[in-house]
Design goal:
Structural class: alpha/beta
Enzyme class: oxidoreductase
Distance between the termini: 27 Å
GO molecular function: 3-oxoacyl-[acyl-carrier-protein] reductase (NADPH) activity; NAD binding
CATH superfamily: NAD(P)-binding Rossmann-like Domain
Radius of gyration: 17 Å
Bound molecules: NADPH dihydro-nicotinamide-adenine-dinucleotide phosphate
EC number: 1.1.1.100
Helix content: 40-55%
Family: Belongs to the short-chain dehydrogenases/reductases (SDR) family.
Organism: Pseudogemmatithrix spongiicola
Order of helices and strands: EHEHEHEHEHHEHHHE
């Protein structure tokens, strides 16, 4: 079952490292031309050069709606379209509700959720015209089950699921599919910041008895981007070693 994305352009936010970097690499291996996005142009350019296959770096702070709209336009202009949109970039600003500041709530919702809405709104026109499109939003198991200390993050990820199902219904008639990948515990810079105690507690809940790798998520995204997933839309694919079932 080969995945062939030759001729497709993929925009992956937060692809300078971690899960996004692995997704970008996998889509490029499958033949797609990939737009690498991070806040720093030089870093995005360096990753694009590593990935090859015509990949190009773009600087964008996805917390700023005007920059997100401009990003989609710039990718369409430079690479000839945006067939696959992966809303991956995300941040955490954890705290118990009692201590959570308004600005931490806003920053997480704006970066993780509003950015996806803006990017989808900008990219959908081109996809609808082509009668082919794939939108894949990276949520989290926390968006399904909640997590103490992550009310803002869990709300943003649950919001992505509602957004995705609505988009799936709006765009299905144009063969534009929208799905969610919900990772469990994946080893990246984001999770390296956790305390050893928190990591130990979490690991005990994973039936497959290991942390996931960014490549585990990349495989699921490549599948959903491919024609093998042509009859799947509005779904949440949990990739978590069996943690949530
Ligand atoms: P990392 O922190 O390792 O990487 C985050 C990426 O997002 C970087 O490429 C960073 O680029 C980019 N980014 C962050 N903020 C912005 C911004 N304002 N504008 C543009 N780009 C930004 O995260 P992960 O790879 O671990 O996570 C990727 C996604 O997967 C996130 O949405 C996360 O919530 C989700 N996830 C992760 C899990 C895990 O266990 N790791 C579990 C469940 C979900 P740069 O710094 O170069 O700007």
């Amino acid at each position: 079952m080969r995945i062939d994305l030759t001729g497709k352009v993929a925009l992956v936010t937060g692809s300078t490292r971690g899960i996004g970097r692995a997704i970008a690499g996998r889509l490029a291996e499958c033949g797609a031309t990939v737009a690498i996005v991070g806040r720093d142009q030089a870093k995005a350019d360096a990753v694009a050069a590593e990935i090859g296959g015509g990949a190009k770096g773009f600087a964008c702070d996805i917390g700023d709606p005007a920059q997100v709209t401009a990003l989609v336009e710039a990718v369409e202009k430079a690479l000839g379209g945006c067939d696959i949109l992966v809303n991956n970039a995300g941040i955490t600003k954890d705290n118990l509700m009692l201590r959570m500041k308004d600005e931490d709530w806003n920053a997480v919702l704006e970066t993780n959720l509003r950015s996806a809405f803006i990017a989808i709104r900008a990219a959908q026109r081109g996809m609808m015209k082509k009668r082919w499109g794939r939108i894949i939003n990276i949520a989290s198991v926390v968006g399904l089950i909640g997590n103490a200390g992550q009310a803002n993050y869990a709300a943003s990820k649950a919001g992505l699921i509602g957004l995705s199902k609505s988009v799936a219904k709006e765009l299905a008639s144009r063969n534009v599919l929208c799905n969610v990948v919900a990772p469990g515990f994946i080893k990246t810079d984001m999770t390296d910041a956790m305390t050893p105690d928190a990591i130990a507690k979490l690991s005990a809940q994973i039936p497959l008895d290991r942390f996931g790798s960014p490549e585990d998520i990349a495989g699921a995204v490549a599948f959903l981007a491919s024609d093998h997933a042509a009859y799947i839309t509005g779904q949440v694919l949990t990739v978590d070693g069996g943690m949530v079932m």
